[in-house]
Structure formats: structure tokens, C-alpha cells
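Entry details:
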Amino acid sequence: MPARKAEVHHAHEEGIEFAFLTNPTRFIDDGKGNVCAVECIKMELGEPDESGRCRPVPVAGSEFRIEVDVAIPALGTRANPLLTKTMPNLTVNRSGYIVAEEGMTSKNGVFAGGDIVTGSATVILAMGAGRRAANAINDYLKWKYWKVKK
């Protein structure tokens, strides 16, 4: 598991359930556009490849669903350049990550948090950036609503 021992320990303390050798295959919606489940397939370790590492392979007929209220995909190790290349005037740093001051980007009313701001780091840093962005969104909406009401 590519995580620090402390992160695994804290995840266990938070009640996180690990599903090893399990691969999500699709999100399932409730017919109204809301995610309600994740379909998964169990995996097993196959034969070693050229590097000597046993690669996971799907176990036929082992598909199952996990009911969820929210799904937060967190995949990859680099920022996806699609967003930053298609949004003009969005300030990014030399590594291609979005620059956000307390969650707010260079575009008024556009917020960012998580790995797209911190880069590949720990889950804790990404969560902190996400929390700062959520707080900034809350403050922004409160201020905007208050300003409109006056």
C-alpha cells in the first residue's frame, strides 16, 4: 500500500475499511443522476511480469456492489492538464498545479483544493487544501448572499 504507516493507522482509527485486491469498475446512479453504488470486481495476483511483480488480474464472476452516498475519485499522481489548459487566465505554478490563496483561484468565484493545488503529497495535505477551499466557498457565498440582501 503506497501510504505512510501513520496514514494507515489514522485511517483505521477513522473507521476506514480497506478493500485490498478490489478494483472499482463503474459508478451506478439512482436514475436521477445521483451516485448510489460502486460496482467492483475482486482481483487476484497473477504471474510475475518482466519486473518480477505479480500483477492483479480480475477474478471472473466476482463482481459486487458497494452502496455509497458520495464517491470521490482520487486517481493518478499528476495534475490533469485538461482543466488548466481549457480555462483561460487560471494561474498555475511551474508544475501545472492551480495556485489558490485560501482556496480561491485567480478566477473570482472559482475554488480549488486537494492534489490539484498541493501536488502529489499526503492525503492529509490534500484534505487540508480541500477544507480551505470549502471554507473559502462558504465565506464567499455568505458574503455574496449578504451583499445581495443589502
